[in-house]
Give the backbone structure.
Amino acid sequence: MVQLAELDAAPDTIEATLNYFVDTGPRPVSLVADPGGRDQRTGGGDTEPRRVTLHNGRLEADHFALDRNGFRFVDHHTKVADFFDEDRIRRVCYPEMEALVKAESGARRVVVFDHTLRTDDPALRETQKIREVVRRVHNDYTEWSGPQRVRDVVPDEAEALLDRRFAIVQVWRPIHHPVESWPLAIADATSLSERNMVVTERRYRERTGQTYAITWDPAHRWYWFPQMHPDEALVFKVYDSEREGHARWTAHTAFEDPTSPPQARPRESIEIRTLAFF
């Protein structure tokens, strides 16, 4: 847990710049680099930096609900100490995340299918072959790519599973040390509109996926959780097949924190992706 003195020092709100998307017509495409490299963007679209107010989510943490706001902030201890140990992540962290997402979502079955390590330290990114932080407002799945991920991960069961409600739920947490730079901002799902979501292709070596780029809307209500520690996690939903009565998406992005201390350590984090079946 974060020390009380640290919490008392964190402001209720901050002003920061988030990078939104400007839709210019042609579909934007991201060419996904191998781990350690940098993605390249081609096609249409542009970046629009916007100053926004971010609210200290710690002050409202007890009120957030996954199906209403799209996210939950939780205390969660992990037995993984070295997140650069791939085998340990899969053997220890995956079962931990399955149990956490079941508890937070109420799903009857959870399948952990992927994880990504990120850092804003270029040298560490290259030596450990991990990915850069994402500095643009986005949501990770679309109406097409959500169901397609089920077909990719559990092809033999996919059509039967797609007859019922399912969601893609992710867990984000810092690793090795607290977040001092480039924290994660997340938008309350109740403030999002699908009119602000633009399909973006993500082209990997072996497949093509889709995400939503997000255009500016002054209605967006943004949160961040200052000084997150490795024993804290953000559980958030990036797809829900249920169209009514449930949060379906959560726009999010890394951002340059104006309250970062001098000589702040580069952010190191992991995000775990799961399929949650109801």
